[in-house]
């Protein structure tokens, strides 16, 4: 336990994710064996479910590379590239109690080609700055998601950005508000609607803020994980993972996709 205490929760999280590749048993000891609630609906609950997942690894194993990691109170959230039944990119959220992981949420999607502005789903700034502005940045991003994405108050859109300077990592959308507008227009022509109904969690550290929301995409129940980088009080960069929520008949646990503690 002495070694565990010396590691930050962020370091423990990165080690646990890497253990999916390495099978490192020491890292797995950072998960509470008696209390581990799983919100990935395709994985069985508890530490046994995590172990069963590792047993499914192909002969050459899984591959895991964490790109960004942040801590907000008892939560650590990460952005990671996996070779996990095929190349995938995902966000993971872990909740800690007494130095051990007790709960996990995530969103995963297949790796896609670079977007129209030549950005990938994970490239861009990784430097974590402005730690003294964490709460202000969380409020800004929360207001943006609620105003624009949930409530459609498009007259407020310009106020959240520095002109058209906005770096976009969504694989289907180009940079800038102009790129966002073009993508929304193109989806509308195809009869595709992107709906945000509820923001379930806002987590942040410094200039990075993650929002976890529920809604529909093309009329399918959808989980939205959106990571924003804030610069000088404006949204400057965006990464996301949009995942269709697993139907109840196919779920391996009953914990729900969201259900964050108050």
TrEMBL record:
InterPro entries named among the record's database cross-references: NTF2-like_dom_sf (IPR032710)
SUPFAM superfamilies associated with the record: NTF2-like (SSF54427)
Source organism superkingdom: Bacteria
Protein name in UniProt: Nuclear transport factor 2 family protein
